Amino acid sequence: MMIRALLVDDEIAAIDWMLDLLRSHPLIQVVGTATDFEQAEKWIAESLIDVVFLDIELRRHNGLDLLEHLDQQQVVLVTAHEEYALRGFDLGVVDYLLKPVSSQRLAVTIERLRKSLIAAAVPLKSSSGTALSIFPVESMELIPPEKILWIEAENNYSRIHVEEGPSVLLRRTLGEWENVLFEPQFSRIGRSLMINLPRMRSMTSQPENEWKLEFYETLKTLNIGSTIARRLRKFLSHPRPPAS
């Protein structure tokens, strides 16, 4: 697997620093560099790129505006301004690197990027209408849907929580999951949450108007607000019939 990268920064020294660090990672192939917004747009429009390492302050532009011009490319923000981190993650970036970037921190980012790209590359597919091959983990083993506990929307991405191991971020919307995960097992409880209802064991009240969901055969829990809790109780009282 080769990851094709574009480096975008208005400081030549910063680009050279990243180029030097990335030489230690043969997984990454730097296909181009850009020092302004217009150059970056041209590279993205004309080249096959998997990831953009993107500085935020680009002279007359904010680098985050470039995200509107991306299709399926992943983004890693590289900046000296940590105050942009929250907005960047809200927009679905893979990671956030603070300058000066260290080799150790870059290695973490590249591993995260590798997993995200592998996961996004595998399409959803049904298996005789009763089971689904959902997504690959590091071993490329496919996870059966019954091991999924819940799915959360994160903009145009979704985060899959399974009974064991870390969650997985995929470039798929919650609506795409609705098309392939069957009701009433998987139910969308609001705009940003799907729950595997047969795996749910209990729902208990918590402080601050929150509720804690516990699941069978795992120690993982999910905290939800009172509005979602009311919707979930109503859903459990009047479950939808299975799709015919």
Task: Please explain how this structure is put together.
The protein has 244 residues and is α/β, with parallel strands linked by helices. It has a five-stranded parallel beta sheet. A five-stranded antiparallel beta sheet has the order 12-11-10-14-13. Strands 15-16-17 form a three-stranded antiparallel beta sheet. The two termini are 40 Å apart. About 8% of the residues have low confidence.
Task: List strands and helices in order, with pairings.
Blueprint: E1 3-8, H1 12-22, E2 28-34, H2 37-46, E3 51-54, E4 57-58, E5 61-62, E6 74-79, H3 85-90, E7 95-98, H4 103-121, E8 125-127, E9 131-133, E10 148-154, E11 157-162, E12 168-170, H5 174-180, E13 186-188, E14 193-196, E15 200-206, E16 210-215, E17 221-225, H6 226-237
Parallel strand pairs: 1-2, 1-3, 3-6, 6-7
Antiparallel strand pairs: 4-5, 8-9, 10-11, 10-14, 11-12, 13-14, 15-16, 16-17
In short:
By secondary structure, the chain is α/β, with parallel strands linked by helices. The protein has 6 helices and 17 strands.
